[in-house]
Amino acid sequence: MILFGLKIMPDQASTVALPVDLTYLFIVAISVFFTILIFSLVVIFSIKYRRRSDAERPRPIEGNHALEILWVMIPLVIVLVMFVAGTVVFFYMFNPPKDGVQMFGVGKQWMWKFEHPEGRREINDLHVPLGTPVKLTLTSEDVIHSFYVPAFRVKIDVVPGRYSQTWFQPTKVGTFHLFCAEYCGTKHSQMIGRIIVLKPDDYAKWLAGEDPSSPLPAASMAERGAKLFQDLRCATCHGGGLAALGPNMKGVYGSTVQLEGGQTVTADDAYIRESIMFPTKRVVKGYQPLMPTYQGQVSEEDVLAITSYIKTLKADEAPKTEGAAATVAAAATVPAAK
Ligand code: CUA
Fold first, then answer.
1. Which residues share a beta bridge with 208?
2. From residue 215, how far is each of 205, 207, 211, 220 by CA, in Å?
């Protein structure tokens, strides 16, 4: 938005940008209107009703019910409109649509690392397709960061030890600023990046590695996860063998898991991450708390890759100890069940 030749708002480049701006401008307009009204009346009344002589005594005011009801009801209606408008936008922002693409990001002093399910990884750049909802799962490797794209009106804290979810649907092709909006150390101000919105065709080309500047990685996220699952010897205990010391991972993702102690938990990204980092915290019923922690041995990106792999393990197929990557390559082309 341009006012008197000055750009006072960033580009509106996502579906949520206009509703956010309208809500914001509505609240600003109401605030400006009442500020001017009240200050004008203070000045006008202080002149009009000034004491004109020392002997002047004003008439006592008995009160006015009609006036009091009026000045309660009008602000009530106004703030309720603000509340409803804000809530509608809030629910839109925090309910990602079912379709769209899933991407992953890790904040770190002082950079953003992104990964596409197809395996493409980027630092401080994120390529996204135009007109498609882009869902982002974000976490931090160290301190609290904040993922902030002004043109999309998207801002969400990225907290170590948990997953933050956000989404946006770009409406303009172009390159947009990505900031870290949480003071995170000496180079916080340099923790900046770019969101590059491409037409779907161009995005597909970019993803396929037809852009010579960034050749396609050898493995998808799930394939990388499958390799980690072997290399870290996860498969020994979680491969469903007879001597397995841990629960079989097939069909686990999204299921409800019985825990030692009687509680249950949904096996989502957060629980899988917790089980890798703090395995004895919530142990699956029927198993001993034997698993060592992998904290410090696997990065947040590795955890995301392993989770991607676990998502591909359907209840009817067991992870194989040999050639798992090949199995997953086939499975990864099918969108993982939510
Ligand atoms: Cu990361 Cu500020």
1. none
2. 11, 9, 7, 13
CA of 334 to the centre of ligand 1 (A): 35
Angle at 13 between CA 7 and CA 17, to 5 degrees: 80
Ligand 1 atom nearest 143 alpha carbon: 1
The pLDDT value given to residue 244: 73
Mean pLDDT in residue range 198-207:
89
115/138 Cα distance (integer angstroms): 10
**Strands 111-115, 101-108: pairing kind:** antiparallel
Q: Is the CB of 90 under 6 A from ligand 1?
A: no
CB 101 within 8 A of CB 107: no
Question: Cα angle vertex 137, ends 110, 118, to 5°?
Answer: 95
Condensed to tens digits (0 to 9), the pLDDT of residues 75-104 reads 999 999 999 999 999 999 999 898 989 999
**Helix, strand, coil distribution of the chain in percent, nearest 5:** 35, 20, 40
- 301 close to ligand 1 (CB < 6 Angstrom): no
In the structure encoding, which two tokens stand for residue 163, read together?
């997953």
In a 13 Å sphere around the CA of 88, the CA atoms on its Cβ side amount to 10
* Ligand 1 center–CA 236 separation, angstroms: 39
**DSSP labels, 275-292:** HHHSTTTSPBTT--S-PP
